[in-house]
Amino acid sequence: MENHATRPHHVAVVGSGPSGFYAAAALLDADLDVRVDMFDRLATPWGLVRAGVAPDHPKIKSVSAQYDKTARREGFRFFGHVHLGEDITRDELLERYDAVVYAVGSQTERRLGIPGEDLPGSIASVDFVGWYNGHPDHVDLAPPLDTERAVVIGAGNVALDVARMVLLPEADLRATDTADHALDALVASSVREALICGRRGPREAAFTTTELRELADIDDLAVDVDPEQVPAGIADDDTLTKGTRRNLEILRGFAEKGPDPAAGHRMVFRFLRSPVEIRGDGRVEEIVLGVNRLETGEDGRTRAVDTGERETVATGLVLRAVGYRGMALPGVPFDDETGTVPHEEGRITGRDREYVVGWIKRGPTGIIGTNKKDANETVRHLVADLADRAPAERDDEHRAAVESWLRERCADLVDQTGWEAIDAHERGRGEPHGRPRVKVVDREELTKLSRP
Ligand code: NAP
């Protein structure tokens, strides 16, 4: 057998969010000579940690320090402003790399499928979250904040994020890295109430405990939970998970206390409510909610069933936070039903050298840390496959040749040094104002900053 121990393996990771970075770290940790090139269609790395996590959660965002460490390791390179399917193709990657890992997340929204869903003022959380976080695709969103009440559809953590962001006191907002265009709009906003509608009951809500608990600490915020929907003793049920019991205790606490009438902002929770229709003349003016009851299906899952009763709520802004959805990558298999890439423990079904990690692998669930275990599973198989195979014959100039090819293809290419320059600039602008950073959102400016 040929000895190929002296030739390194080259792996491309497409996507630089948490799952991409955990995959890169696991690869560099493996007992194998490997080089990792990571690509992102944006100039900036970190995926949802930069463009998804709410700006008032800096502790969660601080996980980026781990990704920085990985990025500085020998054998790792970052290339931003590289769009797979536009600037380069899958075939071209497979020609240049021994394996390709897709870590592209879930870049679009789940649809409600109701009349009025696309009226101006009805906004998917993926767009709204991208807007306040300075994602270049969403900078021009201009959500209508000239309304007293926002209605948030969904009972998950993203629903809580967007509800908090429209209600946070100015001082709290100003201490964050919320993109400046959104900061100004949110400070000037007329929104005083966010009505969060869960289609099932409080037991079935997808919030995590820390996120519910912290609501009590927000200044000038009244939390309004209907005591009839979370009656005394609701948490005393051994069949519930510890997390659900804690959530119910917190919600019951809010219901018992009652909303503070002096507070300037209100977060209202209403369960057993589904959006039925969004109405308005040229923009959102009201939403019709259907009242549900719960039923347990044959599969044991609790389902919301429409009672036929309707409620109409006046609002100028509907934020749809009912989950994200993956998008197909050109040339890569895709399951339209689940919005994910079909795979066996991370090996893409029917493909030899292609792998998936993160939300495009398992769907849009779990917290950031979940991606570590998920990426480790994929990389375990990837490393076993690489160890079984001689890396393609390549000369010493291979890495340099790949970089030249990228520079030729992508006029705005941003490399790791370029990103570090952007990062330093943003942090420097934030420091005098006690903010973690002031984000740059303009593609040309980002490119310029990245140049020596
Ligand atoms: P999620 O946790 O899946 O919640 C989606 C919510 O939308 C559920 O309440 C779901 O109700 C509801 N929903 C779905 N389809 C609906 C419809 N047609 N009509 C009405 N309601 C509908 O999704 P997410 O909030 O987007 O969060 C995604 C993942 O990121 C989650 O794992 C979340 O925990 C995580 N995340 C974590 C943090 C954090 O740790 N701070 C912050 C943000 C996000 P059913 O249950 O009835 O389907």
Automatic annotation (TrEMBL):
It holds the Pfam family Pyr_redox_2. Gene3D superfamilies: FAD/NAD(P)-binding domain, NAD(P)-binding Rossmann-like Domain. Coiled coil: none annotated. It catalyses: 2 reduced [2Fe-2S]-[ferredoxin] + NADP(+) + H(+) = 2 oxidized [2Fe-2S]-[ferredoxin] + NADPH. It comes from Actinomycetospora lemnae. Residues 10-166 form the FAD/NAD(P)-binding domain. The keyword NADP applies. Residues 423-452 are annotated as: Disordered. Its cofactor is FAD. Its EC number is 1.18.1.2. It is an enzyme of class 1 (oxidoreductase). InterPro entries: FAD/NAD-bd_sf (IPR036188), FAD/NAD-binding_dom (IPR023753), Ferredox_Rdtase (IPR055275), Ferredox_Rdtase_adrenod (IPR021163). This is ferredoxin--NADP(+) reductase. Keywords: FAD, Flavoprotein, NADP, Oxidoreductase. The keyword Kinase does not apply. Belongs to the ferredoxin--NADP reductase type 1 family. SUPFAM superfamilies: Nucleotide-binding domain.
